[in-house]
Amino acid sequence: MDPDGLNEKIVAGIDEAGRGSWAGPVVSAAVILGAFTELSSLKDSKQLTRRARERLFTKLKNEAFLGIGFASVKEIENLNILQATFLSMERAISSLSLNPDVILIDGHMAPKALHNRATPIVKGDQFVPVISAASIVAKVVRDNHMSLLDKKYPGYCWNKNAGYGVKAHFLALNSLGLTPSHRRSFKPIHNMLCEEN
Fold it and tell me: Rounded to an integer, what distance in angstroms lies between the CA atom of residue 133 and that of residue 109?
């Protein structure tokens, strides 16, 4: 180890949640693991139960450095989902209290603004602990946000489906119609609008 710490790099992992959802924002998390040591517990958020995710989220909040970035439905509609996702990633990095030297991003692309220090890793959320941590944080934060939206727009079961295109959500759309939190450019919603006209 370099005694002056010159070769020690601050590494952040980034992942997003909600990219394929029919409603709500896309949320990215940036994580620097810091004092967190439970690395073997970190997996892709989709491989964990909600209870396990929430336990790890609480531990990460206490022991790691977290940054969160939202991109709104309006931004998704104006920019497209990919660019809105990149925007949420940039916001997540900006909200960290430490400035990372290296950024590891789940997927095969990185935002242009982060290119000089970002490396995309396909399926990184499955085997790179710092990206797995970001996956867990993004999922928990977004699920909690969708539960709040569920109270504002009841009937769509967003507290359970997080706005994704499951049967209960589809049936609610047919009976209740659209909310301001629905992504009108997404194909199922767009098709509904076309049928109404």
Answer: 19
